[in-house]
Amino acid sequence: MCGMPSAETTRASVHEPDLVPPTKEDPVAATGSELFGGPLGRRALTGTSWWTPVRVVALVAIGMFALGMVQKLPCYDGAWFFGASSQYTHACYSDIPHLYQGRGFADGLVPYFDKLEGDMEYLEYPVLTGVFMEVASWLTPGSGSIQDQEQVYWMVNAGMLMACTAVIAVCVTRTHRRRPWDGLLVALAPAFALTATINWDLLAVALTAAAMLMWSRSRPLAFGVLLGLATAAKLYPVLLLGPLLVLCWRAGRWRAFGTGLLGAAGAWLAVNLPVMLLAPEGWSKFYTFSQERGVDFGSFWLILSQRSDTALDTDTVNTWASVLMLLSCAGVAALTLGAPRRPRFAQLAFLIVAAFILTNKVYSPQYVLWLVPLAVLARPKWRDFLIWQACEVAYFLGIWMYLAYTTSGDAHKGLPQEGYQLAIAVHLLGTLYLCAVIVRDILMPERDVVRRSGDDDPSGGVLDGAQDVFVLGPAAHPPRHAAHFDGPYVEWGAGEGKGGRDPGSL
């Protein structure tokens, strides 16, 4: 009897999947692990400690967020208030303290209902982000100087955004059941820590990460509600419905998609409709501002504008940006329907959001936060992820040094225009590189590190292991290697929705 497993061990072996340790499959992760004692050993005990992957990743993410707050210390101590260029030379700029007074929160104005002084007129953020900003202002004492209030407002927002960071870390860690340690890529991402408190984007990122977790658990209604809330906080999450539509088309999962779509529309309307009806001018400001905004920082449009003799017309840029985005959507759809094996949801989610970022007329440095969780789920390869992160850190430094150059007068401290254009090019090339390796994984699924470990689409929910019902091009006649490369890991005939796949679905 002593040699027999206990009931607890038996239950754990039945219900807990075999985890994929990154140090066993990723050379960069294995090398980095030497700082902490080396790769996981053959006799290591897993799953018996309080230090579960979720807890470790969440704590590391919070620790990195705190380091990002420390990096903003020069601005907190005065650069936000007393030196226009010093907040750029220290690379610690944040919109949060500036907008506390600039958008009427210091004066008790109600977003979307009360007009602001100056050209802006109304708050130019989506409704749920406006609610987030307003709640933070309620928690900010109105006593003391305006500088003191702005410091407290930034700190209150930082605390709320830290909670969003923990949510993101937990959701990404739990989305791929067998690969929880991939969440360390989110936790340790340097660009994540550096940009987390520039603006309020982490609210939408957290809701999107939670939505993807719900979809991976085959809960389309919860997915839709969370995605609708995320879209009420930032526009980009709605883009995920596009690739999901094509994936469900290929797999015939129309009911799940329809449920998610209705949940998203209902949640978005529940947040927006009251403000839309009671304060239509204030509600529409975000959408009109996005249309009327000219070419701005970080985009390839800015390089074109700065290198041309005449400024680019805003309407023309809007048109061409829309055309390029539509072509990108068509390309993603063709890739989805024609790939030899159905792409994973996270892969397409990254590609479509990256396409939006690459074609948009502005790229603020905190937009990298949109892509970090998607990149981890789409391509959990440390080398590629760190190459991309290095490019984003270079851009983060480049934009602040360029602004320091433009605001330092005759001193010209910082990066001139040509140097900033190079930083933009580095950001664009880094993002395109990650897109290229993800597209390669889709076209050559044997290169996909997630599927190489034996999974189909762990973030796919009802799509995971589903049979294809509609395919085009190469998918209709898959090459032999695409149909059989993962044979040792696949148990055929498990049936639809049971984790099995038939050869026609590859």
Automatic annotation (TrEMBL):
The lineage of its organism: Bacteria, Bacillati, Actinomycetota, Actinomycetes, Kitasatosporales. Belongs to the glycosyltransferase 87 family. The chain crosses the membrane at residues 50-70, 152-172, 184-215, 221-249, 261-279, 319-338, 345-365, 385-407, 419-439. It is found in: Cell membrane. GO terms for cellular component: plasma membrane. InterPro entries: GT87, UCP010361. Signal peptide: none annotated. It comes from the Bacteria. Residues 1-26 are annotated as: Disordered. It is a multi-pass membrane protein. It holds the Pfam family GT87. This is DUF2029 domain-containing protein. GO terms for molecular function: hexosyltransferase activity. Residues 13-26 have a biased composition (Basic and acidic residues). Keywords: Cell membrane, Membrane, Transferase, Transmembrane, Transmembrane helix.
